[in-house]
Amino acid sequence: MQTNIHYPSFKRVEGSVIVQLRRIVGEENVLIHKELREKYGQDKTEGLVFMPEIVVLPCETQQVSRILKIGTKYRIPITVRGAGTGLSGGALPVCGGLLMSMERFDKILNIDKENFQVTVEPAVITEFLQNTLKDNGLYYPPDPASKGISSIGGNVSTNAGGLRAVKYGVVRDYVLNLEIVLPNGEIIWTGANTLKNSTGYNLTHLVVGSEGTLAVVTKIVLKLIPHPTHAMVLLVPFEDAAKACAAVAAIFQAGITPSVLEFMERDALEYTMDYLGERIMDIPESVKAHLLIEVDGFDPMTLQNDCEKIAEVLERFDAGEILFADDEAAKNVLWKLRRNIGRAIKSSIYKELDTVVPRARLPELHQATKAIAAKIGVKVLCFGHAGDGNLHINFVRGDVDDDTWNLILPKSIRELFNLVKSLGGTLSGEHGIGWIQKPYMNIMFNETSLNLLRGIKSVFDPKGILNPLKIIP
């Protein structure tokens, strides 16, 4: 349990403010009792809890505007929350104050088949949107492992990527336009519903990935593409995890761009099967890692040729017998394993990083991660989006003592992040910086760069009320 941080410049939520909020959203949508507020003080971030003083549930843009005007007038910190699936503490109300839950903004407003666009509210669940679009022959590719529970607004907030970013890109590549509410209550659109736009600074891209620190997103216009009609999935075992990492770049060098290219260590899969209570597959003792590879498109013969080329590449890296999942049941078993790895590890006490390096440097990152963990006696499980160099590194506490976990591990993480920078990488690929990675931002940015970030924040939010103490140290 964490203690909320209160600054003299921020005011508490007083009775008169509560009365005003009830007038805006209705009494039933203003939560003040502790038992109602508890779930909003935590997300999926390593057991952190910061209780909001009050929770407000608006359902339309004008309500958001009026709430923000109150926050600005009385200097009340406001934290915006989506589905609560964040992994960096980005939506935790660390200063208490008012938590604005967007859960009632849950509508798909318009599917524009002619222009391959969709307009949605931020609380729409990613998988629900994808399934709805698929029924219309349309595809929204960003595919986080949490797509069944995470919201589009949260994905926009962190610029999420997921399994298919390697071929199709991340959320930012699909956001055309945003309706946002500024901290002073003004409502604006950030761009245009066009595929090209060279008109001024790109406010849309600035807001995407800003983790709720600049504005509140109330409508999202997304670009779509035709839905692929065919896909083939391969599961490839390796006796040497380093060779599995090295094979990743070679696949692209052979002229093939898979739609999914995931790295999964043996221990991560064992954890997952224990968590699910299902022995989905038997892993020989000699196998240390797997690559999960998907190719997709519209021509089965082209995909078959791609798979054959991939198999030829993998032979050079001593891959084991490749499992081809060519029916939906077999594919679903593999997706079930991959999508549950994160949840399985979260059942332990852990510390997760989602570092990114150029994919050819992935073997060095993996080797260094293992060395750092061994040096302090902590178990580490690695998996992630190898195709784009995004490795999810999970330090699992196990029997490690408090001093090692609380004092030595942060120093080891700093050592790892310094290495990531030296490899040409960065701290986070899709989880965001939020609260827990903020102390390491000075590794990536010097003071001049940090001051530019602070300047952007102050232009949008001069009183600093919106999601304070996040991202910028």
Description:
The chain is α+β, with helices and mostly antiparallel strands and 473 residues long. It has four domains: 15-104, 2-Layer Sandwich (Uridine Diphospho-n-acetylenolpyruvylglucosamine Reductase, domain 2); 108-226, Uridine Diphospho-n-acetylenolpyruvylglucosamine Reductase, domain 3, CATH 3.30.465.10; 230-342, Alpha-Beta Plaits (2-Layer Sandwich), CATH 3.30.70; 348-444, Alpha-Beta Plaits, CATH 3.30.70.2740. It is built from 16 helices and 18 strands. The chain has helices at 15-25, 34-37, 61-74, 126-134, 152-158, 165-168, 203-207, 241-253, 266-276, 300-315, 328-339, 341-345, 362-376, 402-422, 441-444, 447-460; strands at 30-31, 54-56, 78-81, 98-101, 108-112, 117-120, 138-139, 175-181, 187-189, 216-223, 225-226, 230-238, 260-265, 289-297, 323-325, 350-356, 379-385, 390-396. The strands form four sheets. Strands 15-12-14-13-17-18-16 form a seven-stranded antiparallel β-sheet, sandwiched between helices. The protein has a five-stranded antiparallel β-sheet with strand order 5-6-10-8-9. Helix 8 packs antiparallel against helix 13 (362-376). The protein is globular. The protein starts with 14 loop residues before the first helix and ends in a 13-residue tail after the last helix. The relative contact order is 0.12.
Keyword list:
single chain; 473 residues; alpha+beta; Uridine Diphospho-n-acetylenolpyruvylglucosamine Reductase, domain 2; Uridine Diphospho-n-acetylenolpyruvylglucosamine Reductase, domain 3; Alpha-Beta Plaits; 4 domains; seven-stranded antiparallel β-sheet; five-stranded antiparallel β-sheet; 18 strands; 35% helix
